[in-house]
Write a structure and sequence with these properties.
About 35% of the residues lie in helices and about 20% in strands. The protein is of the alpha+beta class and about 700 residues long. The protein has five domains: about 5-65 and about 325-410, Beta Barrel (OB fold (Dihydrolipoamide Acetyltransferase, E2P)), CATH 2.40.50; about 80-320, D-amino Acid Aminotransferase, Chain A, domain 1 (2-Layer Sandwich); about 460-495 and about 495-530, no CATH class; about 535-620, DNA polymerase, domain 1 (Orthogonal Bundle); about 635-700, BRCT domain (Rossmann fold, 3-Layer(aba) Sandwich), CATH 3.40.50. Strand 12 and strand 13 (about 345-355) form a beta hairpin. The two termini are about 45 Å apart. About 45% of the residues are buried.
């Protein structure tokens, strides 16, 4: 990776950085949400996601299939029942500077077209475990962790043991989902660790780990013995509104018997928000519980509804995070890892060091230029100091899940330390590793013959937002890939596992290490269940470069069926003509993404036959439409000119919520053009093609707005 600010990254540098960030964030998600063993603090994790989002904003065509901006949390751990959230539990965008808080306010105002007074709430961001509590007729009937945002873990019996969580409510709506954070106070944490140590049991690294581990016990009696607390700060499904404002809703939750944070206040703009941030930061050490920032939310709930959501974060809230720390340690070695796209990524192996309460044993070294002490243009970084095995290095974790090496102490360098020689062949398959002009990353040219790339592609295929096959994770993929009896070398091979196992009279899977009759049967059943897959998940699972989860959803909603998508790709195979223009006109799908799609699924591409083999084993389902009974459902709409009663962003969001497809340009497949003052070439194109043109007032009447 380069140390350059996002705004000066080249496209090649940005591509390499996004690859590193995706890998690092995925590892952190598993460590934090599934294993309750985070390697970094929340502030550092969110800062990493912030850099990823900033790069994607500047280079939208480079967005990866496994983009962290579209992900929330991690998969549900084995041993718990699953709970589908009626309303998704999302993460928050983050800010680190006063300027970013002001930018948040500007974005909100621009989206709404709002020029008047605008109030926000500001509250401490508790460093604990998110929990959703469902009450029906005032009775607690279910408690679930956030999980991946859509599906969480059923921890109802455990939640019933927490004193801060009421079992019954008086005067509550018929249906009420209360959301908040389970945490442990500093004093209770210290006492718990003393008891754990006295009995010879495992002690916890920090209060967050202790709270998460205590809530997620299969034995509720263990949870009951732990001093857990709960702050309520939000809600999910409700049968009747709690209030018209965020602050009013929090007050209502408090009246119903929930603990709410007393440091939550109303602010009339960024200056007041920042002033409260500084007050909370000054009190941080004396609060008695861990916080990692301050959350700002638009107070007016009607405005929150208008602002809506991105793929994984609300537009109406942001977390202003506290800064992280630095530490010095010894560099013990440099390993080279090969990713799904063939990128050779150097990783520093460190003498373990504690940074901000977390033990760090590795760090990213980004690329060969970074190790050599220069940027991709040959200009010096770190004063031109290179990085060598045996050096004492400064580890900076503010923006990295796998922390970065920020500096080198030359005064402690050993006399026999040698410059690191970056390999020019793939360490996994021996193929040449080339570095294209202008690219900061060296890549293996082996393609699918490279086992590292093939394995990583399979891991992506079964990942959470792709096929998500229970019992077939990264560890099992590696095992099956190298298995001489039941090898899995391509996605289609997964769906022949049961058939091949049945045909093998010897060495059945159920008789092999790591499997038994029950676990083998469960795996085959889980695979069979995924023969029915939504179109957007299938597209995402293919791991096509530049086609991330958001792009996969756009394509799935636009084409509706796999057959229609493939037909469009075949028609646009020459990347020219009206079919190509129609493909690139899909809002959110530019030329780079469209070309990557055509290259990957071109009828003559080496991957197409394998994909066709896979799809032949599946039933591909359409994505659920946002609306099917609206007058614009299924229609392709183009907005042009100036909209006077709503912003362009809000118009697009409302159209998509009603099931319309929003395109960025007019083509023969456009159904409707909404033209405001100043409409130019798009309106003329619509007239030439005989497409219906209406003004904004007519559009609002049409959609009932």
């Amino acid at each position: 990776m380069t140390d350059k600010p996002v705004e000066v990254l080249t496209e090649a540098e940005a591509r390499a950085e996004l690859a590193r960030l995706a890998q690092a964030i995925a590892a952190a998600n598993t460590a934090y949400h599934t294993l309750d063993a985070p390697e970094i603090s929340d502030a550092e994790y969110d800062a990493l996601k912030r850099r990823n989002a900033a790069i994607e904003a500047r280079f939208p065509a480079l967005k990866r299939p496994d983009s962290p901006t579209d992900q929330v949390g991690a998969t549900v751990a084995e041993g718990f029942g699953k709970v589908a959230h009626r309303v998704r539990m999302l993460s928050l965008e983050n800010a680190f500077t006063p300027e970013e808080v002001a930018e948040f306010d500007d974005r909100v105002r621009k989206f709404l077209g709002h020029r008047g007074a605008l109030d926000y709430t500001a509250e401490p961001k508790i460093d604990g475990l998110s929990l959703s509590l469902r009450y029906e007729d005032g009775v607690l009937v279910q408690a679930a962790t956030r999980g991946d945002g859509e599906v969480g873990e059923n921890v109802t019996e455990n939640a019933r043991t927490i004193a801060d969580i009421p079992q019954r409510l008086t005067g509550a709506p018929v249906v009420l989902e209360v959301r908040g954070e389970v945490y442990m106070s500093h004093a209770d944490f210290a006492a718990l660790n003393e008891r754990q140590s006295a009995t010879g049991d495992r002690t916890f690294a920090n209060p967050r780990n202790a709270a998460a581990g205590s809530l997620r016990q299969l034995d509720a009696s263990i949870t009951a013995s732990r001093p857990l607390r709960f702050f309520a700060y939000a809600w999910g499904e409700v049968s009747a509104p709690l209030s018209t404002t965020q602050l009013g809703a929090i007050a209502r939750l408090n009246e119903l018997g929930f603990q709410t944070n007393p440091l939550t206040v109303l602010c009339d703009g960024p200056e007041a928000m920042l002033a409260h941030y500084r007050r909370i930061e000054a009190q941080r050490a004396t609060l008695g519980y861990d916080i990692d920032g301050v959350v700002y939310k638009v107070n007016d709930l009607a405005l929150q509804q208008r602002l809506g959501f991105r793929s994984s974060t609300p537009r109406w809230a942001i977390a202003h995070k506290f800064p992280a720390e630095l530490a010095w340690t010894e560099l013990l070695g440099i390993d080279i890892q090969v990713g799904r796209t063939g990128a050779l990524s150097p990783v520093a192996r460190l003498r373990p060091v504690t940074v901000g309460g977390v033990v760090v044993s590795n760090a990213t070294l980004h690329n060969e230029d970074y190790i050599a002490g220069r940027d991709s243009r040959g200009q010096p970084i770190r004063g031109g100091k290179d990085i060598r095995v045996g050096d004492w290095v400064q580890v900076y974790r503010a923006g990295d899940v796998i922390p970065k090496v920020a500096d080198v102490d030359l005064a402690r360098r050993k006399s026999d330390a040698q410059p690191f020689v970056f390999p020019d062949v793939c360490p996994e398959c021996g193929s040449p590793a080339h570095r294209e002009p202008g690219d900061s990353v060296r890549r293996c040219t082996g393609g699918l013959i490279c086992p590292a790339q093939a394995v990583e592609r399979l891991k992506h295929f079964v990942s959470r937002n792709a096929f998500d096959i229970e019992g077939l994770g990264a560890k099992q993929i590696e095992m099956f890939f190298n298995d001489p009896i039941l090898p899995v070398r391509s996605p289609a091979d997964i769906f022949t596992l049961a058939e091949r196992d049945a045909a093998n009279p010897l060495q059945k899977l159920r008789n092999r290490d790591g499997f038994g009759e029950v676990s083998a049967a469960k795996l085959f059943a889980a695979i069979e269940a995924r023969r029915r897959i939504r179109l957007d998940r299938l597209i995402f699972a293919l791991g096509i470069r530049h086609i991330g989860e958001t792009s996969s959803g756009l394509l799935a909603r636009h084409f509706g069926t796999w057959e229609a998508l493939v037909q469009a790709i075949d028609a646009a195979r020459d990347c020219s003509g009206p079919d190509w223009e129609a493909l690139t006109a899909i809002d959110g799908i530019g030329e780079v993404s469209a070309r990557a799609l055509v290259d990957a699924l071109h009828p003559d591409s080496p991957e197409r036959a394998e994909v066709d083999r896979l799809v032949g084993m599946l039933t591909v389902l359409p994505v659920a439409a946002a609306a099917t009974d609206s007058p614009v459902a299924g229609k392709t709409v183009v907005f042009t000119g100036t909209l006077e009663r709503m912003t362009r962003a809000e118009a697009k969001a409302r159209a998509e919520a009603l099931g319309a497809k929003v395109a960025g340009s007019v083509s023969a497949k456009t159904d409707l053009v909404v033209a405001g003052p100043g409409a130019g070439s798009k309106a003329k194109d619509a007239e030439r093609l005989g497409i219906e043109i209406i003004d904004e007032d007519a559009w609002l009447r049409l959609i009932g707005g």
